[in-house]
Amino acid sequence: MPRTKQFDEAAVLTKAMHLFWEKGYHATSVSDLVQALGINRASLYDTFGDKQQLFERAFTEYRAINRQRIQAVFNQHKSVRAGLEALLLGSLEAELSTEQPRGCFAVNLSTQVSPKDDRLTKLLFENQRFFEQVFADYLQKGVKQGELSPTKDLQELASYLYTLYAGTKVIARTHPDPISLGGIVQTGLHVLEK
Amino acid sequence: MPRTKQFDEAAVLTKAMHLFWEKGYHATSVSDLVQALGINRASLYDTFGDKQQLFERAFTEYRAINRQRIQAVFNQHKSVRAGLEALLLGSLEAELSTEQPRGCFAVNLSTQVSPKDDRLTKLLFENQRFFEQVFADYLQKGVKQGELSPTKDLQELASYLYTLYAGTKVIARTHPDPISLGGIVQTGLHVLEK
DNA sequence: ACCATTCTGGAACGATTGGTCAAAAACGAC
DNA sequence: GTCGTTTTTGACCAATCGTTCCAGAATGGT
User: pLDDT tens digit string along B142-152?
Assistant: First the structure.
């Protein structure tokens, strides 16, 4: 009966994601959001509830996008080593583009959330475990292909790769130098060798 | 003529450091500080200027302490590999103690500071470069001892080690599991092998 | 044309933010 | 003790925070 939605909710959510991603939760005010999203203050509260809920939806959105992106990169490469390189180096190129905030939303959040905040801490840990599993599955493919030695502890290797990923994301925020980061990735991936 | 200082400025600064370290800049209010430091609001402003200056002094304090700690660990171990293990694993034990905030103040700050904040970004990059140099010097010692192959690019290795350090500090914040982290460190240090 | 509903602009809410000020209390020198 | 200086104190400031509300403009279905 009534009128249709005026604004694209998904597009607005993406804008919110970028803001929170770049500035973090506390440094992003509702006024900042209203201005950046281009919708009215009341519409924001009507659509998303409150700041906290908007933040969580934005983060959830990020997780979905990031998951999709990583799996796409993996599927594009037959060689596991090449896939991991592409993931770590390809996302580094993204750091240099101005359209996207630097670093990884989830990694940023890990250092911003209080360890006492059980809800978000748990969410972050689940996120970490999920990506470790994605890494582990991908490594398993490498073993089957004969690219990786079957004697390796894949779970441990996967945890290590996530740590390496997080580390590169941290230093990419303050100094996204492709040359330096490229060397780091090459060094870090030496552990894949038999 | 005047009177002597009423409170221990260094001790107060340490408390401020812990607060900022744990909660970050924006999430720490001046009221939080006043309560935690045990001094009056006006005394805080009289002694440290404003919130920003207090934060920078607290971070500077952290850098000094952390630098001292790292160099002390290195000096305690003849083997470079053992020294690096002790640094990465030893500080992990610190994560479990409740007296100290989790993670690394500098790493946390890297993901919290806006890349547009030239002042702090530069400070963080200097901090990174400094530790990379400490790592490189230590690795050099390993080469002289015959522990490391002289063919290695020590600067690149040092950058990698800082990245590994940062990564472990990130995941230590949400899930400081010594077993998992121990495995990650062992895996990450395989790159030291000739 | 009308109604239902959604969005807009703005004002206003109490709470909290970072920061200030004048007065009082605490001290060292004499 | 008394004076002079400085720290400490608690009240206080304007600004901003997240949030709510409402009257009117805008729009789609019937």
Answer: 999 999 999 99
